[in-house]
Design goal:
The protein is mostly beta strands. It is built from two helices and nine strands.
């Protein structure tokens, strides 16, 4: 793109290779504009994960096809398996997908929670909800 762009970044020097989930959430919250912070808190309750070290870098309607696209981020130790669910909706289907939202493989659903294997830092998932 040949137009002016702005990028803001932060660098933390820590003793370990990763940042705690508390520090990561705190840092992410400060990037949200002041007027949108009440919405950020509300959105944070829409999708749940059983691992507090996993954060959601994106949650949006699928641009192509049906469902909701989630981008799960896990810093630190991999691989891992987490469970993701939407408290207010029934999940009918779930798929691991790529950045272009193309389904790669179906994911197992156990008692309303999607089982998501994490083998890389950023994992994209399509949830098809009622």
């Amino acid at each position: 793109v040949d137009e002016l762009q702005t990028h803001r970044a932060v660098l933390f020097a820590t003793q370990s290779r990763s940042m705690s989930s508390t520090m990561l959430r705190h840092m992410q919250f400060h990037w949200v504009p002041e007027a949108a912070r009440p919405l950020e808190r509300k959105v944070g309750g829409l999708v749940q994960c059983d691992d507090p070290s996993v954060t959601f870098s994106a949650m949006k309607r699928a641009e192509d096809g049906v469902g909701v696209i989630l981008r799960l981020v896990r810093e630190g130790h991999l691989p891992n398996v987490v469970r993701v669910w939407v408290p207010s909706k029934e999940i009918w289907g779930a798929f691991r997908c790529d950045a272009r939202e193309e389904n790669r493989e179906p994911l197992e659903i156990e008692q309303g929670r999607v089982v998501v294997p994490l083998s890389i830092r950023l994992t994209s998932v399509r949830l098809v909800v009622r």
